[in-house]
Known about the structure:
Shape: globular
Helix content: 40-55%
Number of helices: 8
Distance between the termini: 40 Å
Structural class: alpha/beta
Low-confidence stretches: none
Largest sheet: 5 strands, parallel
Amino acid sequence: MKRILVAEDEDAIREFVVINLQRAGYEVVEANCGEAALQKYEEENRNFDLAILDIMMPGIDGFAVCRELRQKSGNIGIIMLTARTQEMDKVSGLMLGADDYVTKPFSPSELVARVDALYRRVALAEVRAENNFQEEIRSGEFVLNLRNRTLQKKGKMIDLTQVEFQIMEYFFSNPGAALDRTDILNHVWGEAYFGEEKIVDVNIRRLRMKIEDEPSNPKHIVTVWGLGYKWEA
């Protein structure tokens, strides 16, 4: 069963999210605050594919829950719910390890499309792990393991989120090629993605902080001005 943890303190919004996800075939565990979300995550033995977190919750907010969940699992997909005016919150959530965000107000079709897209990435990772998929892609001092969804630099492990991994896999499969933002967006988030291209830039920034010796002067994920990015080993 596809299982989702939904944390939202506004009852009407939470019920709207839960009903539409259930109609789409998901099993939903709901929480009305951050504390309850973290408690239910542990009570359910961390058995969740995805989490949908509202940012503005009393007590432990969505940022803190996102950070905690990401520390516990690199595999769980995380979507943040943000208000239209919370531009910096979108970036902050992504930098903390969220995979995507949905801006309120949103339609049922948008919500389900974003959830489905993220779930497919999570499910693909699980299938590869269960089948002992061991293929590796090497690029200079880096090794990308397609089974356990990890990246190594000079033998040192670098933890990646689902989205970060897919971006790196795309780079490794196209070394030296200039990939525009739209190509990256379609490949990672899917052609039906409702969001904005800037989500690509935020994830690139996050990746550079993880893999570059000098993130402000990147040698590996290089900007191609007016187009997008390319990978240099």
